[in-house]
Amino acid sequence: MGVSVDEFLEMLDRLPEVKQTPGGDWIALKVRGKGFGYLWERTETVGLKATIEEQIALVAERPEVFEPQFTAGRFGWVVVRLAGIDADELFELVTEAWCLTAPRQLVAAHEAGR
């Protein structure tokens, strides 16, 4: 189990229009200019947008893998330790974060093409 930084970055290629923007100690992940995640290579952690309910559930279920990052409106961002998660679960969380952020038409087109 565990996902490397390189494996995580490769996952992003499976989602349309993802842009990586360097931000100092992190890389911001955006779709059409809106952020849905962050990568901190040095600590091998990822911050992902989620619903507040999902954030609470993930942290309660596995606090050794997930921790709350912050909340903003109806969203609860969660930090994921890459060493503690498998690729399928991480891709599901990344896709959910992307879907919460991307325009509806882009999400629909992506889901239709799966």
Summarize the structure.
The protein is of the alpha+beta class and 114 residues long. The protein has helices at 5-12, 52-61, 87-101, 104-112, and strands spanning 18-22, 27-31, 34-40, 45-48, 66-72, 75-81.
Structure description:
Pfam families: YjbR. With 114 residues, the chain is α+β, with helices and mostly antiparallel strands. Helix content is 37%, strand content 31%. It has helices at residues 5-12, 52-61, 87-101, 104-112, and strands at residues 18-22, 27-31, 34-40, 45-48, 66-72, 75-81. It has a six-stranded antiparallel sheet with strand order 1-2-3-4-6-5.
Given as residue ranges, the uncertain stretches (5+ residues, pLDDT < 50) are none
Number of helices: 4
In total, how many beta strands? 6
Q: Structural class, judged by helices and strands? A: alpha+beta
Q: Work out the strand percent.
A: 25-35%
The profile of the biggest β sheet is:
6 strands, antiparallel
* N-end to C-end Cα span: 25 Å
Lateral strand order in the biggest sheet: 1-2-3-4-6-5
Estimate the global geometry from the Cα principal axes. Answer: globular
InterPro entries: YjbR-like_sf, YjbR/MT2646/Rv2570-like
Protein name: MmcQ/YjbR family DNA-binding protein
